[in-house]
Structures are given as C-alpha cells and as structure tokens.
Amino acid sequence: MTSEPVDRLKEKYGDIDRIVVDPEDVIEAISYAEEPDGSQMSQGSKVLRVWPPFEGCVKADVFFNEAATRYPSNIEQPLHISPFAFLNEDAGFRKRIAYPNWLEISRKTAEARDSTPEEVDEEAVEENYDLALEDYHRQIRKRLADEITPDNRCGYTEQALAGISVEYREEET
Question: pTM of the prediction?
Fold first, then answer.
C-alpha cells in the first residue's frame, strides 16, 4: 500500500523507463554524505538530479543541493534522487563498511611501524588513507543496484521511483 504523496509522484514520474548515471557520480554523492566531518552536511547534500521531461531514458548527474536551493516557479522542477537509492536494498551499507577515518589509519600505520601516530610519516598515512578510500569506493561500486531501491534514508520520491531500471555509464573525460 502506498501513500497519497507517493501515488502523486508515481503519476508525475511514471513515464521514466530508465535512469542513466555515471557510477562515479553515485560514489561521489554517497562519499560526501558519509564523510566523518559532517560540517558540510549543514550546507546541503549531494543528490542525483534529473531534468524534465520525465519520460523514457533520463540522465542523472551529481548535484550539490544547497539547503537554500530554489528553482524559478515558471519551470518544471528537476527531480532530486538520494544516492542511496542506487544501492542494492540488502546492502546494509553503513553496517558493512565505514568511510575511512584518518585518525584510525594513522594509528594503524604507526602500529605497523612500531611507532606512535605522532612519529609516523604523514606521507605513509596519506598513502594508506588513499588506499582505504579506493577500497571504500570499490565497495560502493559492488553494491550498485540494477534498479532504484529505496531504503530508510530515502523519501517519497525514491519510493515512487522504486523498480525503475538503472544503467551505469562512465563519463568520458
């Protein structure tokens, strides 16, 4: 059973067959949300944005959604999708993998070298941090879903999009 807001949104977005998105955009948006320094979250969040028309195959791009983001009232509003809706429903993402923690990596790097975190070479910590971040991104990539799968971090919009297929295409640089 769905709610009235979800039913209205399904009517609005019901002609979307597929969402095309660069997996790196999803990774960027999730990483932003999961970074331990949450100070930036008060300024806004990263979402995947789709512009009208909402039919057929649509493209989603990463977008920094500032708390004060407003669109002109004379245009059809774009669709903002939580990046977590692109993960497999059973991913249990936050339970299984944590965003790399600089202090923890510094401590482990020091232990491996029989020294204290204060004595350890900053470059060694940075190298280990970069490796942990690469692994974190790889874990996200492994959990990308073939269709929109809303979880408890998602709202009415993602519920209305549930089941729409997702195609991942790397952006050419």
Answer: 0.85
Tell me the helix, strand and coil percentages in the chain, rounded to 5.
45, 20, 35
Q: Are 64 and 94 in contact (CB under 8 A)?
A: no
Which domain covers residue 44, as residue numbers?
1-88+144-173
Give 82: exposed, middle or buried? Use CB within 10 Å, 0-12, 13-18, 19+.
buried
Amino acid at 108: K
Q: State how many domains the chain has.
A: 2
pLDDT tens digits for range 94-125: 556 788 988 899 888 888 888 877 788 889 99
Per residue in 35-85, pLDDT (tens digit) is: 876 555 567 889 999 999 999 999 999 999 887 778 888 888 899 999 989
